[in-house]
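S1.2 Input.
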Amino acid sequence: MNEIIEHKLSLLPDLPGCYLMKDRQGTIIYVGKAKILKNRVRSYFTGTHDAKTQRLVGEIVDFEYIVTGSNIEALILELNLIKQYDPKYNIMLKDDKTYPYLKITAERHPKLIVTRQLKKDKGKYFGPYPNATAAHETKKLLDRLYPYRKCHQLPDRVCLYYHLGQCLAPCVNEISEETYKVMVDDISKFLNGGYKNVKNELTEKMSAAAENLEFERAKEFRDQIANIEAVMEKQTMTMNDFTDRDVFGYAVEKGWMCVQVFFVRQGKLIERDVSIFPLYQEPEEEMLTFIGQFYGKSGHLKPKEILLPEGIDREIVQQLLNVHVFTPQRGKKKDLVKLSIKNAEISLREKFQLIERQEQRTVGACEDLGEAMNISTPLRIEAFDNSHTGGVDPVSAMVSFIDGRPNRKDYRKYKTKTAAAHDDYGAMREVIRRRYIRVLKDNLPLPDLIIIDGGKGQMEIAREVIEDELGLSIPIAGLAKDDKHQTAQLLYGNPVEVVPLKRTSEAFYLLQRIQDEVHRFVITFHRQRRDSNALTSALDGLQGVGPKRKKLLLKHFGSMKKIREASVSELNEAGLPLKIAETVNQYFKKDE
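S1.3 Output.
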C-alpha cells in the first residue's frame, strides 16, 4: 500500500458510492460499488485474498471514489462507469449471446419477422426462442393462421399468399388500422399462451366442416391443429400459468462465479444462459451488476417476472428494471431457482479446470516471465518484426498481448519510409521511434515489456530509441531462433544474457506464441504488399485497368497467382467489364 492509497483510505466516508481503481499508467482497471465505501475499499488492502484478487490489488497504485445518495444510485452509476471505461477486471457481458425473437413491426401494414436485435421501437417482441429453427417454425405457423403482410416491400399486384388466404393484399386493397389492430392482438394472445383457444376454435370448425361434408376444408383445419401441436406443445410444461419469467441462480468457488439464467416462456423452460467470470466483490453485489448488464448492454428482453435466489436485494432490481421481482420461498418457483443454482454449481465445477489451465497459460505465464527476468509482471507486451524479400518491399509490424492474450485491435503495420531497403537496423530504429512517439503523443498506455524478434544488435537499436531518445524506461528483450527458425532463447539485461527458461514452461510457450504471431502478421502484410506491387507493375499501361480495378482484383482473388490463373468469366464476376476481362486474360496468357 503506497502513501497515496494510505492517505485516501483514511478519508473514505461511511456512505454508499462507487470506486475506481487505477494502475501505474492511470488507467482505470476496476470499477466497483459499495453500501459503505470505507469498509469495501479498505477490504482490498487488508487481510488475505486469492491469487486472482492479489493480482488486481498488485496493479492498483491509486483510486477515486464517487459518493451516491443510495444503493440503487450506486448500481446505476457503476453500470455507466463500466460501460464508459471498459475496465479489464470487470464483468463485460458480450453482445454475441443473442437469441432469436419474433417481432411484429410497427408499420402501417405490419409484418412478422425473426430477429436477434432488440430495438427501442414500437414493435412487439416475443421470445427468446431456444434457436432460430424454433423461431422460424413458429413464424411459419403464424404465416398460415393470420393474413398479415408477408412481403418486405409492397408489390403492385397480388401474390400467391393472397390466393392462399394468407394475406389481405394491402398492395391493392385498403386495409383499416382497426383490422390490423385486431390481428396484432390475436397474434399477441396466441404467442402469450392463447394458442390453446385457437386450437379449440379450429377443432370446432373442423367438426362443422366435416358435418357439412366439406372434407377439403376440414383437412385444412386438421393440418393447422397438427401444426399447433407440433410447434407449440412439444415441450413439457414447467408452470401452471403462462407468465414469461427469467430465473436466476449462481454459484461461487475459488474466486469464480457462475450465473445461470433460465428463460421460461408460456410456462415452458425453453433455454438457459450460462456466464462464468472472476469475482472481485461480494457475490450478492456482483449479481446486481450482472443483472443490470444482462438487460442493459447485452440487450435481453425484460420478462414480466424475475425470480432471484435469497440474499439478492430484489427491491433494487425491481427499481432498476421496473418489473416484478420475487424471491420464492416454496412451490414450483422455489424449485426452479434451486434447479438454476444446481446447474450453476455443476457448470462451475466442469469448467473450473479449464479456467485454471487458461489462467496458467496466460496471466500465470506473464507472472513466471516477469519472475525469470526479475521485472514487474509484464501484462502488456508489444513485439516487433521486420520482413522483406532481398531488400524489396520492406515492411515491419507490431503485435500486442495483454494478460497473455493477443490484443488484435492494437496491432500495427508499418511501411518503412526512411530506412534503406537492406537496412534491418534502420528499419527497426524507424518503427520503434514511430510507434512510441505516437504512444506518447496520444497518451496511450506504455507496454510493460518490448520484445524484438532478433538478437543483441536489434535490442541495442531499440534501447537507444526508447531510453536515449525518448527518455522512457521499458524493459527490452530479444528472441533468438535456432537453425530451424524456432524460438530458442530469450535475451535480456545489460550486458545482454540468456534468460534461463525451461522449454516446457508456460512462460516459454507464451514467448513462442508471441514470436509466431508477430512473424505471421508481418509476413502476411509483406505478401499483401508484394502482391499489390506485383499486380501494379504487371498491369501498368494496360488500357481499362486503373488503380481502382487493380485493387478490386487483388481484393477479390487474394493473390497475384490466382489473378493470373483466372478465366474470363471469373475476372468478369470479380467486377471487370467483359471486354476488359478478355484483355486481361489474354495479356497473362501472352505473358506466359
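S1.4 Remarks. The chain has 19 helices and 19 strands.
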